[in-house]
Amino acid sequence: MRFLRRASARDDGTAAEQRAASDEDRALVARLLARDQAAFVSLVRAQHESLVRLALVFVRNRATAEEVAQDTWSHVLAGLGGFAGRSSLRAWIFQICSNQAMRRGAREARSTPFSALGGADEPAVDPGRFESNGHWAHPPHGWRADTPDRILERAEAVACIGRVLDELPPAQRAVVLLRDVEGLEAAEACNVLEVSEANQRVLLHRGRSKIRRALEKLLGDE
Amino acid sequence: MLTCRQMTELVTDYLEGTLSWKDRFRFQLHLGTCRHCRKYLRQMKVAAGTLGRLPPVEVPPATMDALMERFRNW
Question: Among residues B16, B65, B55, which one has the least CA distance to residue A162?
């Protein structure tokens, strides 16, 4: 699976290497600079909603987040000629969006630091499911759909994931969005969100655990 | 010996490759003997893999028109 192949991040405070732009990214940038409308449309289709979701972490409401996302595209177009390819194009666009959203959030006096948006420190699994010796008392149920393909065939599962994602505490939502939904490297997500790798991992773990829990509830064999 | 409860808290560190070699060994040793934790690990991978393949949310036509206007004026 994709995230198993990622370069390992380290705990000693050094940042993991950020992935550079791929040939595909460079080709897409060249098409955009040549004013290729279809290339822009496909990029917007692929990333716009995630920009809105990311912006929503930092600003008050969806209308403002939508404005931030739209302004992000203007900044992307304006800065495209200077895209140096030191990160993936996707990460570069998210970086512009988070900068815009943080600035906008500060202007709205919503200056809660990102670290305060992480949600409560809660266990991945309800402690009631373990014996006092830490072993499973109520082990995970098998799922009726047990691969991404089979899960995606079920509309109720897709809706459930969307709902849980929207309900995650903002910082968990942002990390799960960038890492799992958008496939950014750990170092890229840390740069976009200005968060340490260790904190990023905690947020990812909590967010993913809640998605798993919701899928178990929906798809688990009792 | 790692407990199942500890294992559920280490899954993401394991998948991210950030466990020390010692903890990684303990984690794998536990997995080798506990089918429930193997199932748990698999479900976490499937959940993350599913997130990565969600269908994109459609951009409303009015938004797309507004963005195309920006593109044409660029």
Answer: B55
Cα B71 from chain centre? 35
Residues with Cβ within 8 Å of A155's Cβ and at least 6 positions away in sequence, in order, are none
Q: Domains along chain B?
A: 4-54 (1.10.10)
Which residues 47-66 in chain B show a CB within 8 A of chain A?
Answer: 47-59, 63-64, 66
Q: Cα distance from A62 to chain B (closest Cα, Å)?
A: 13
Tokens standing for residue A191: 């740069």
Cβ atoms A29, B40 nearer than 8 A: no
Closest CB to A180 among B5, B6, B51: B51
Burial class (CB within 10 angstroms; exposed 0-12, middle 13-18, buried 19+) of A38: exposed
Q: Which residue of A lies nearest to B69 if distances are taken between CA atoms? A: A74
Tens digit of each residue's pLDDT (9 = 90 or more) over A197-206: 999 999 999 9
Query: What is the rounded distance in angstroms from the CA atom of residue B74 to the CA atom of residue B68?
Result: 10
Instruction: Give residue for tokens 């900068």.
Output: A99
Is residue A155 very low, low, confident or very high in pLDDT (cuts 50, 70, 90)? very high
Under 8 Å CB pairs connecting chains A and B tally to 153
Residue A7's pLDDT is 35
| Domains of chain A and any CATH numbers | 18-112 (1.10.1740.10), 119-222 (1.10.10.10)
Joined tokens for residue B19: 């466990």
Please report the pLDDT score of residue A13 as a whole number.
37
Q: Which residues of A touch B55 (CB under 8 A)?
A: 152, 158
Contact criterion met (CB below 8 Å) for A26 and A87: no
Residue whose C-alpha is closest to residue A134's, from B6, B38, B44: B6
ipTM for this model: 0.93
Token pair in block for residue A94: 């998210």
